[in-house]
Amino acid sequence: MIATALKARLGGWRNQLPLIWLLARQELVDRHKGSLIGAAWTLIAPLINILVFVLVFSKIMGARLEGFGAEIDQYTYSIYLIAGILAWTAFAKSLGTVTNLFGERAHLITKVKVSLKALPLSVLIAESVVYAISMAFFAIFLLIIGFPFSLWWLGVPLVFALQLAFTYSLGLLLAVLAVYLKDIKEAVAVLLPVWFWTTPIVYVSDILPEWVMGVMRFNPLYQLIDAYRELIMYQRLPGLSGLVGLALVSLVLLATALWLLKRTERDLRDCL
């Protein structure tokens, strides 16, 4: 009986995949809809962002972190910034979009039999494509300046997978609540910039008081961004306790979101 139920569930997800891929593609297309060069902006925008971070902070402002070798030091702050801000951008854009997804896709949800649990995956897939492109340009920049690569880079996709799991779980929960509580949309828009500045992305955590660092360890984005920097910059294993804790938090959020969606799905579709 369990095997039959599992097979039926997997079959249902498999039937949703073509629609999810189509929506993910449309998500990328809609971002630059009406522009002259269209989808090419998916490549151009990450490249421009990388160039701005490098030129402004390394060449113009001369910001740097010491200790990576004379040839590399002039670029270290740019590397530090890019490693954090690419991850943050993927998270913030995904969370903001998923939170408003059910309302914005109401015309689709009410006409097509689409799984509400699967719908946020289209946003995460689209943002993953942008993140992968950005990381490719980042890697090219590191190659150009002679920054050493190591096998620790293989851990980056694993950390990003954990980031996607956390984003999906939190986003799905907020998306369900946003159907009934319109303030959720506004609250997320206001709190994301606060979350950004309370996470060491543009500043180094060494400047923070010890008691603040104690609180910071409960910040999921701090754990993720610190893990990226440990793998990319310092080429060592990040702290596993924080990542394991984040995985557990993601599971709790996911269970809560799925429970709430199951209890309210019929009413939710009617409200849309």
3D architecture notes:
This protein is mainly alpha-helical and 272 residues long. The chain has one domain (19-271). The protein is built from 12 helices and no strands. The chain has helices at residues 2-31, 41-60, 70-73, 76-99, 101-104, 106-109, 119-145, 156-180, 183-197, 210-216, 220-232, 240-271. The radius of gyration is 20 Å and the shape is globular. The two termini are 35 Å apart. Mean pLDDT is 83; it is low at 1-11.
Please give the structural blueprint.
Elements: H1 2-31, H2 41-60, H3 70-73, H4 76-99, H5 101-104, H6 106-109, H7 119-145, H8 156-180, H9 183-197, H10 210-216, H11 220-232, H12 240-271
Helix pairs in contact: 1-7, 2-4, 2-7, 4-7, 4-8, 4-9, 4-11, 8-11, 8-12
Overview in brief:
This protein is mostly helical. 75% of the residues lie in helices and 0% in strands.
Poorly predicted regions are 1-11
Strand content: under 5%
Compute the average pLDDT.
83
Order of helices and strands: HHHHHHHHHHHH
**The biggest beta sheet, please?**
none
> Number of DSSP helices?
12
Write down the domain tally. 1
End-to-end Cα distance, whole Å, is 35 Å
Radius of gyration: 20 Å
**Which term fits the overall shape?**
globular
Structural class: mainly alpha
The count of DSSP E runs of length 2 or more, i.e. the number of strands, is: 0
Helix content: over 70%
